[in-house]
């Protein structure tokens, strides 16, 4: 496990931590850029734009940006590995910055939520998400924050794995920028106001 629960644990709230790590999940490479599975990358790209930074390769295995989000010190990260191996880069980056899992926020696509839905939670299962499963295994805990970006269920009998590796539909793309913006707002709220107040705002 990376670090131990302390002042940054869920009781104290992430808003009381000195530094937070916000990880967006996705697959690297331009061929995946518009996929539903890359929703997390889209959100941290928006957050990076807000703090005026550019991602740079980091020895922890991710691309990172350091700055302040809504006045809160944060490291934004995008693992350079594929989704199902995201845990190594996330754990490596957390170790480098001495960030506990309880000060980690993972932004990811969520099949079990309709498109246009944003939900926040702390801990719990991975819901079959390979990126979350890899992170939990590498950290040795499921106790970290998640910001869930709803992408909806696949139509008919389409394999969920195929569905998330397809680009957002034309109708979805018309609303995508607004949803990415809302999800980025939810991350900032989580850092500054904590989980319960943010859930009250966005749920």
UniProtKB/TrEMBL annotation:
Q: What does this protein do?
A: Catalyzes the release of premature peptidyl moieties from peptidyl-tRNA molecules trapped in stalled 50S ribosomal subunits, and thus maintains levels of free tRNAs and 50S ribosomes. Hydrolyzes ribosome-free peptidyl-tRNAs (with 1 or more amino acids incorporated), which drop off the ribosome during protein synthesis, or as a result of ribosome stalling.
**Is this entry keyworded tRNA-binding?**
yes
Family according to the record:
Belongs to the PTH family.
Cite the EC number: 3.1.1.29
Protein name, UniProt field = Peptidyl-tRNA hydrolase
Q: Where is this site: Stabilizes the basic form of H active site to accept a proton?
A: 109
Taxonomic source organism: Goodfellowiella coeruleoviolacea
- GO molecular function of the protein, one example? peptidyl-tRNA hydrolase activity
């Amino acid at each position: 496990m990376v670090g131990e629960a302390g002042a940054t644990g869920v009781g104290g709230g992430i808003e009381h931590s000195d530094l937070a790590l916000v990880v967006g999940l996705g697959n690297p490479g331009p061929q995946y850029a518009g996929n539903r599975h890359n929703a997390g990358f889209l959100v941290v790209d928006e957050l990076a734009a807000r703090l005026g930074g550019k991602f740079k390769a980091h020895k922890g295995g991710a691309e990172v940006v350091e700055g302040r989000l809504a006045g809160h010190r944060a490291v934004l990260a995008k693992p350079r590995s594929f989704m199902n191996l995201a845990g190594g880069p996330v754990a490596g980056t957390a170790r480098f910055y001495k960030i506990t899992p309880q000060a980690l926020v993972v932004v990811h696509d969520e099949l079990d939520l309709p498109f246009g839905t944003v939900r926040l939670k702390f801990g719990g299962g991975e819901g079959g998400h390979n990126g979350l499963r890899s992170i939990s295994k590498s950290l040795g805990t499921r106790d970290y924050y998640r910001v869930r970006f709803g992408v909806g269920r696949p139509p008919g009998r389409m394999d969920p794995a195929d569905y998330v590796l397809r680009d957002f539909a034309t109708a979805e793309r018309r609303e995508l920028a607004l949803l990415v913006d809302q999800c980025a707002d939810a991350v900032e709220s989580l850092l500054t106001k904590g989980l319960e107040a943010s859930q009250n705002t966005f749920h």
